[in-house]
Amino acid sequence: MRSRYTAFVVGDAVYLHDTWHPGTRPAELTLDPQQRWSGLEIVDAVDGGEGDQRGVVEFRAAWRHGRDRGVLRERSRFVRQDGRWWYLDGRIDPT
């Protein structure tokens, strides 16, 4: 989760694509170069340990785009296959 957040911060769309599960990732991923990320807080984590095959991470990420500011809150699902963690999808909290 933290590595994917860092990829958003530095604008590394290739890393985000490569860590997104092939069954759920979009055909194309374009990042907005004006979007700035300024903080990550892990709110909750369920499973995702050494012996687990699935995990869920809920987080808040502060962002800025021009004069607009906000916080993205998402509950992300991950799956481990062949010893590697993949991002499956996330549910964004609209509040």
TrEMBL record:
Organism of this sequence: Microbacterium trichothecenolyticum
Superkingdom of source: Bacteria
InterPro entries, per the entry: NTF2-like_dom_sf, YchJ-like_M
UniProt domain YchJ-like middle NTF2-like: residue ranges: 1-90
Protein name, as recorded: YchJ-like middle NTF2-like domain-containing protein
Pfam family, one: YchJ_M-like
